[in-house]
TrEMBL record:
One of its GO terms (cellular component) is plasma membrane. The keyword Transport applies. SMART domains: AAA. Residues 403-648 form the ABC transporter domain. It comes from the Bacteria. This is Branched-chain amino acid transport ATP-binding protein LivG (TC 3.A.1.4.1). InterPro entries: AAA+_ATPase, ABC_AA/LPS_Transport, ABC_transp_permease, ABC_transporter-like_ATP-bd, BCA_ABC_TP_C, LivM-like, P-loop_NTPase. It comes from Agrococcus casei LMG 22410. SUPFAM superfamilies: P-loop containing nucleoside triphosphate hydrolases.
């Protein structure tokens, strides 16, 4: 790319927000530490016992909240990993001379290994297979523990001694609370880091749109598997502490109801929030034991099942009345306080931002002065955009084949959506893919990007066959796309969406994310994402929720997101739809400049005039067949193409004619030639 990036002070603009978020988090952690220090000093022995269990259970709850909130998967067997580790640790420390720390590491490792074996085949499948499989695992663990001599059947493993720290036995509950608390705090910090990391953001994006995330290079399966194994590690650590605290491990700890309780902790705390998991573990433990004490005073003589029913009823009521859980309540209160303090954004300012500058163009701009002003505005927008876009890598020389389709076919039962399509897409050129409605353009796009597998035929990108592979395979090699039906990451803001486009350019994995060792990388990518947004006139809405943007601006945001990947081949599926006239002009000119800088574009667009004016090569599909390919002039003169458009709707035929007029106007210097044409 010829234009150099200007050093926009993006980091400066973003810094206060990042610092604010980090500050809020550290204040929260500090408050939790203080609360955990004070709790044993003020709690009664009963409350102390509840507190220790809540802390122990907070660990599997944190793990489950990562699995549900980040990986979008439900596990009904979190208690199994808790139990496996508790048994493993109990057996290792009572039956072998292995040092206790090593025994704990091995026990957690066993839980992680089982999770890996369970998740490996299942997480490839979409749907709730993991929930069903973990439910089954729970039953297996319980039955094996109860029936096996190895686990000492119903008697369980006893004789567990509490650990010693610096020669002092952690005998009473207060000391044990202080022993477990640092692990919960560290676990919470690691989990919080993960949610904000490259991997965490990628998983959130997967929950919003798996297809869009994969098209940006996110390997959904491996990330989900890693989070599932990590979630089992949290459960395993909880199991180790449980064994120490209760001093006996019996089959009951693997029972289904404990898995449900972990689920409740996550839901009551606030689904998708790690803080919620910690709060939820205390809420559930307090509710259970609180009700156990309260119900007999309300209903004299009530025991056992009645207490359980009362507990269940209260939980159901809490979930119905507060679906956002504890964290949801905190958010409502925070928003209310901010409104009271007048800190919320004004609605007028917000909607002005959302409208965008291009939509504020005066209507009926017929006068020469206004037309001139508009042209200048478009020119300066293009210059600004060109100056701020990242470099586009060009691994192949202009004109060489970047993408080759050979015999590409897709059948849906009796419908042949794409039939034996073969053509090449040359590097550094814009190739238009047009055709009447239902011609097979989107199906073709989906097969190229990996969204669907072809029935037969091949798709070679940079000489490597990618057909039938997941979209992240092609994306990792530099092929990405936008979508006809927008695929916005609604859980984040506009900047967060474009930042996801940088995924392929990052390196940090789950471990580095948890350890918070990717700040510099994140800042660099954020700066690039902000530059791209500024370039395409979306800088002013960078911090707004992506889903709040009007349709046209969301489409522009998707283009920004795709450009952020610095692709070699960019597939644009109807990028002009929903854009204002000025936005179309800016985008068209930008695409020309990007093409001149080496970017290869494959463009599906219903605006035939734009395609003819933009493309170097046009391929025409009709009823699944490739009926023509060539320069715009060749294609327009092809009788099959005219017949295809005329053979369908009359207005489409008019579009073709408009396309002819438009391309003549753009390409011909000689007005006389227009008349001849
Ligand atoms: N999942 C599917 N199941 C069955 N038929 C399908 C499926 N997807 C597409 N088709 C059919 O395949 C053909 C090509 O559809 P496709 O969406 O690729 O066309 P298109 O050229 O993109 O159309 P448009 O311009 O209207 O978006 C159509 O007849 C369509 O009904």
């Amino acid at each position: 790319m010829t234009a150099q990036k200007t050093a926009l002070p993006a980091a400066q603009k973003r810094a206060p927000r990042i610092l604010q978020n980090a500050l809020v988090q550290w204040i929260g952690v500090a408050a939790l530490v203080v609360a955990l220090i004070v709790f044993p000093l003020v709690a009664s022995p009963t409350l102390m016992n509840i507190g220790v269990f809540a802390l122990i259970y907070a660990l599997p709850a944190i793990g489950l909240s990562l699995l549900m909130g980040l990986a979008g998967q439900v596990s009904l067997g979190q208690a199994s990993f808790f139990a496996i580790s508790a048994y493993a640790h109990a057996m290792l420390i009572t039956r072998t001379p292995i040092p206790e720390v090593l025994a704990a590491v091995l026990a957690v490792g066993v839980s992680m290994l089982i999770a890996l074996l369970v998740g490996w085949p299942l997480l490839r499948l979409r749907g709730h297979f993991l929930a069903l499989a973990t439910l089954g695992l729970g039953f297996i663990v319980y039955i094996v523990a109860r029936e096996s001599d190895f686990t000492n059947r119903t008697l369980g493993i006893s004789g567990i001694q509490r650990p010693e720290v610096f020669g002092m036995e952690i005998g009473n509950n207060g000391l044990f609370f202080y022993f477990v608390a640092p692990f919960v705090v560290i676990g919470l910090i690691l989990a919080l880091n993960l949610t904000r990391s490259r991997a965490g953001r990628a998983l959130s994006a997967v929950n919003d749109s798996e297809l869009a995330a994969e098209s940006l290079g996110v390997g959904t399966y491996s990330l989900r598997l890693k989070v599932f194994v990590l979630s089992a590690a949290f459960a395993g650590l909880g199991g180790v502490f449980y064994a120490y605290h209760v001093r006996i491990v019996t089959p009951e700890i693997g029972e289904f109801h404990l898995s449900v309780e972990f689920l409740l902790m996550v839901v009551l705390g606030g689904l998708g929030s790690v803080w919620g998991a910690v709060a939820g573990s205390f809420i559930v433990e307090l509710l259970r034991d609180g009700l156990r004490a309260i119900i007999p005073t309300i209903i004299p003589g009530a025991t056992g099942e009645v207490q359980l029913i009362g507990y269940g009823l209260v939980l159901v009521l809490v979930i119905i009345l507060l679906p956002g859980g504890f964290v949801g309540v905190v958010q409502i209160i925070t928003r209310w306080v901010r409104r009271m303090l007048g800190k919320g954004p004004s609605t007028t300012a917000r909607s002005a931002k959302l409208q965008g500058a291009s939509d504020q163009t005066p209507t009926g701009a017929f006068s020469a002065a206004i037309a001139e002003e508009e042209a200048q505005r478009i020119d300066s927008a293009v210059e600004q955009a060109a100056a701020n876009l990242p470099e586009m890598p060009t691994p192949v020389a202009t004109g060489e084949t970047v993408l080759r389709l050979e015999g590409l076919t897709k059948r849906y039962g009796g419908v042949v959506a794409v039939d034996n399509v073969t053509f090449d897409v040359p590097a550094g050129r814009i190739t238009g893919l047009i055709g009447p409605n239902g011609a097979g353009k989107t199906t073709c796009f989906n097969m190229i990007s990996g969204a669907i597998a072809p029935t037969s035929g091949t798709v070679s990108f940079l000489g490597r066959e990618v057909q039938g592979r997941k979209p992240n395979v092609a994306a990792s090699a530099g092929l990405t796309r936008t979508f006809q039906n927008l695929q916005v990451f609604g859980s984040t803001d506009v900047l967060g969406n474009v930042y996801m486009g940088r995924y392929r350019n990052g390196r940090a994995g789950v471990l580095r994310g948890m350890l918070g060792m990717q700040g510099a990388e994140q800042r660099r990518h954020r700066d690039v994402a902000r530059d791209i947004l500024d370039a395409l006139n979306l800088g002013d809405v960078a911090d707004l929720p992506a889903g709040d943007l009007p349709f046209g601006r969301q489409r522009m945001m998707e283009v920004c997101r795709a450009l952020a990947l610095e692709p070699t081949l960019l597939l644009l599926d109807e990028p002009m739809a929903g854009l204002s006239g000025a936005e179309r002009e800016v985008l068209a000119e930008l695409l020309r400049r990007l093409r001149d800088a080496g970017l290869t574009v494959l463009l599906v667009e219903h605006d035939v005039a734009q395609v003819m004016a933009l493309a170097d090569q046009v391929a025409v599909l009709d009823d699944g067949d490739l009926i023509a390919i060539g320069t715009p002039e060749e294609v327009q003169a092809n009788p099959k193409v005219i017949a295809a458009y005329l053979g369908t709707e009359e207005d489409e035929a008019e579009q073709v004619l408009e396309g002819v007029a438009a391309v003549d106007a753009v390409r011909s210097d000689d007005p006389k030639e227009d008349d001849d044409a």
